[in-house]
Structures are given as C-alpha cells and as structure tokens.
Write a structure and sequence with these properties.
By secondary structure, the chain is an all-alpha fold. The protein has 3 helices and no strands. It has one domain. It is 66% helix and 0% strand. The N and C termini lie far apart (44 Å). InterPro entries: DUF6158.
C-alpha cells in the first residue's frame, strides 16, 4: 500500500523533493506523532528510498562514509 503518489511515477525532481521532506519531518514524527503516524512515515520513507535505489543502483558512494574512511579520519 502506497502512502501518497506511487514513487515509481514521480519524476526525478519530485522524488528528490519528497525524500528531502520525509527526512526533514522524521524527528518530529518520531517525537510527537502517534504510533500510526510513525508507522505511515516509516512506510513512506521505505517506499521513497527503495525507488531512489532502484533508479540509482550505481550511485556514488563517498569513501568518507565507509568504515575505512572513518578510520582514516581518526
């Protein structure tokens, strides 16, 4: 069950905007939303992130975001 517009039909720009928005609202939903609101937020986040990963399976990985990169900073 999709919450909102099916991510598969969103143009790239809209998908990225939705991803930004869902991440901005996560903490407020976690802290102040009902259990249902948090569940719905989690489902929507998964849907949007899964679609992003489907479209960008070869996305650029920042070496600083890997364990080896983190160890090199220390």
């Amino acid at each position: 069950m999709t919450m909102g517009i099916d991510p598969r039909v969103l143009p790239e720009e809209d998908l990225l905007r939705e991803l930004r928005h869902v991440h901005v609202t996560r903490t407020e939903t976690l802290r102040h939303g009902s259990d249902d609101a948090l569940d719905n937020h989690t489902v929507r986040t998964r849907e949007l992130e899964a679609e992003y990963l489907r479209r960008h399976p070869e996305r650029e990985i920042d070496p600083e975001r890997l364990r080896e990169g983190a160890r090199q900073r220390v």
